Fold each of these.
Amino acid sequence: MGNPKAFLTIDRKEAGYRPVDERKCDFGEVEQTLNPEDRRLQASRCMDCGVPFCHWSCPVGNKQSDWQDLVYKGKWREAYLSLTATNDFPEFTGRICPALCEKSCVLNLTIGQPVTIRENEAAIAERAFSEGYVVPKTNIKRSGNKVAVIGSGPAGLACANQLNLKGHEVTVFEKNEYCGGLLRLGIPDFKLNKNIVERRLNVMRAEGVEFKNGVNVGKDIKMKDILGQFDAVCVAIGSETPRNLNVEGRDLQGVHFALEMLQQQNRVVAGATVKDKERISAKGKHVLVIGGGDTGSDCVGTSNRHGAAKVTQIEIMPKPPVGTNPDTPWPMFPMVLKTSSSHKEGCDRRWNLDTVRFIGENGKVTGVEVEEVVWSKDENGRMSLARTGNKEVIKADLVLLAMGFVHPVHEGLVAELELEKDGRGNIMTGESQLTSHSRVFAAGDANVGASLVVRAIASGRSAAESIDSFLKERKK
Ligand SMILES: Cc1cc2nc3c(=O)[nH]c(=O)nc-3n(C[C@H](O)[C@H](O)[C@H](O)COP(=O)(O)OP(=O)(O)OC[C@H]3O[C@@H](n4cnc5c(N)ncnc54)[C@H](O)[C@@H]3O)c2cc1C
Ligand code: SF4
């Protein structure tokens, strides 16, 4: 702890975002960076608490106070080493993690100004790349074991990275043309520039991880063939089944799942050409986003960049409390109203609205009938919904369904191996993340349900630990 009084004298300072009028015109990252001196001062605010709640709340167990101190002392290389001892990809989480750590920072409890942990994390990672501390390891001693990782999202990548560094030969199979999962095709470029993903993949390639793109395992190659070629397999296929809204008019033109638009937009930014009739554009349209979460917010930001006439986001749940929520006291992650940078770019947000039907003309959506609902809690804290009968039609010529994801796709490899599933349809595993098949492990959203990048990384890392132990055990 470099400066024991810094938290008393230095205020939290965020790098902030590019001006709305400017950022709405492009898909460049919206968040800015602080100069190195300000960053050092921000790191100095960490009090190195006896019980570091930030460490407790971070799914990968980052040792935040260690690297804040190292940044304060200008020891950026050591800070990067400390950070990557627990997190394979701080350049991703430093940009898009909801910073569970900051919510549980003691300075959040006491003065409402937590340490800028997430931004400091991104700064360490960027400094490491720009100063050349990130050098691929090429002298890895090989074990002779071969592992297949299915899916190249953060869970698959973290698992592949850890196993490769432990000496196993790793091949990552990915059905898409790009690796990175939702980091690459899903999360908008304005939150995470795709060069950042490619930069990390290049390090992994140089370290010996093999990536096979355009291979849908279970369809293009059967799992029995994969199992014939590899000693162990990690299934990290994400949670790709979106929650649907099976109401009248669902098949009208102009009603899409959120990811249909978001993935197409990532491809367009990367230079792909999309035929006019296949292009999902919000230009000049009244856009209705159904679902109040992060995916919905990404649809809002994307629609505004397309030049939408108006963007409305509706949510069936009540509006969360502003600021604090007694149901989720510190150090828990507060369930409070979240206003993203995309919301600030222009959006009408409404709550307590259920979708009754999609209305259309000549096969195209023109509006959505919604009904007001009210929520009440029973004695067990369970919420239940009642309809009020107050209905209205919201004008919409583009509707984006962003109501979350229910479980991984079952057709294909999950069905072929008859992997056991939990009550929600996720791939069921035991403590070591071993599935019902003796050589197949699972990680990430496919295993625990749709969640966060940092949780996927944590899950990929722990699956790698289990696979490593399994392979060592087999050799005895
Ligand atoms: C729009 C959107 C925005 C989000 N924003 C954030 C955010 O800001 N911060 C955050 O922390 N989290 C965010 N999330 C959540 C986060 O992206 C996910 O929790 C995380 O990516 C899950 O990682 P994963 O590796 O388990 O799966 P995924 O990232 O979904 O990756 C799974 C990969 O497996 C591949 N695959 C699937 N089946 C097969 C097969 N049979 N053969 C070969 N490959 C296959 C897929 O193509 C995909 O590349 C967001 C999610 C969405 C949808
Ligand atoms: S990964 Fe997320 S929770 Fe962990 S230290 Fe970084 S910002 Fe905080």
Amino acid sequence: MDGDGKLKVAPINSLGDWLERVQAIGEVKRITAPVDSDLEMSAITYMSGQTIGGPALLFENIKGYPGGRLLFNPFGSSLNRVAISIREDLGKDPIELVQILSEKMKRRIPPKFVEASTAPVNRNIDQGDKVNLNKFPAPTMWPRDGGKYIGTADSVITSDFNTGRVNMGTFRQMILNDKQVGFYASPGKDAVLDRETWWAQGKPAPVAAVYGLEPLLFLTSATSFPKDVSEYEFAGGINGAPIEVFKSDITGLTLPAHAELIIEGFSYPDQTCEEGPFGEFTGYYGRPGGATPFIDIKAIRYRDNPIVTSALMSDWPANECGMMWAMAKAAKVWTDLNSMGVPGIKGVWSPPEAAGWGMTVVSIQQKYAGHAAQVGALAAQCMGGAYFTKYIVVVDEDVDPTNLSEVVWAMVTRSRPAQSIEILRETWSTYLDPSLNPPEIRPWGSKCVINACKEFKYIKTFSPRSLLKKETYDQVCARWTELGFEGKPPKIKNFEAFRGEKIS
Ligand SMILES: Cc1cc2nc3c(=O)[nH]c(=O)nc-3n(C[C@H](O)[C@H](O)[C@H](O)COP(=O)(O)O)c2cc1C
Ligand SMILES: [Mn+2]
């Protein structure tokens, strides 16, 4: 949006609109050769994903699914695709984009209800005997997976029985048979709390799952927003216009009108299935398979030839939880720190290399005694950053939090392990953390907060950095070609402020 509230770029309402934009920058690869949904599609995604910034893969010829289409890793490791999804222009630095997203996350626009009959996703509605989930392509991603996962880059929609608030969360969904899918969500997640509000009344919990969706809805579903506000409002805020929805006559839930494919049905308190294991965002199989609630599917709504969206979970850079989570989590932590009134925040990053969610880096301009410790503790435990994250590093403003080389350098030159590290215990984690053993101790975790800032007590006398003088840098830039170097001179951000005064 610009100042007068007009959208700068053409609106994106559907996955089709998004694909058009992404195709225009050459970041969709259509794969028309026949491929197997059993391990082959995911292997291709993993291998293609080794190139940072590589394309999203649209599989159009999946063995056994005539006409079936599946988009693997919509975000991948591409900053461009994150930019497009949050309705921004390309070419911005990661930290600039995180800041923009964090501002957009402060806006809320409620969804707009349209007539169900006009919603493109209602072009086809299968109910009763016609319900057959196995009609749609779903990959088995890793050799030890418990089954085909149709829901990964998805949005699972639930509601709170007492307040009516509609939640959107990304939760994995394994096909059990034509009419049932597993519904795994970690303790503390909103879908878990929501379904329990229905079960406490002795009622089945209504639930819908969107398996083909526009990536902004995927991003907002995968981000920890306040538990009492619908993700639809935050998606609208980022979109700069309301998300179009309709009310389901089957479950009463609010569903996205422009989705590709939605299932809906009910989940019961006293019925579970065997679900998992699944190769997870950590790059490991998470908890072993176990008893999990499931969804009894009453209806499937879909466009003609719908596109299923899928997320490969793996080690970086092929992990769909890498760049998207890096951006979304960092932006949300920034929003949370701002909303608590913490001053001096210069940048927040969640390194995609750290399983997307495992680490938070905040750079600050230290303003008062205890400032760095306060930022570390709040970034560790605020809603946007608390889940799973193990390492929280606070650095000064001259350190770029998106540059791990600079962060590591600050850690070894500014922190003192005996003084600068705090451990937080019994924190919010997950059954999926392979380091928590024996597994019975899960989902409790711990966190390490590292203050890698110059010690504030000695900030005036802290050893000066060896920095170039700006005028010397400019001179060398001007002579770069003459000196025999090719290309542009490197960008340098920090320069010497010393003008000849005596260093004490
Ligand atoms: C691709 C992907 C798959 C995910 N799968 C799960 C899952 O199976 N279970 C889970 O608890 N969280 C999963 N998450 C994390 C949640 O989506 C995330 O914590 C989100 O904030 C949950 O929604 P909520 O904040 O409304 O509870 C996944 C995230 C991504 C990006
Ligand atoms: Mn939520």
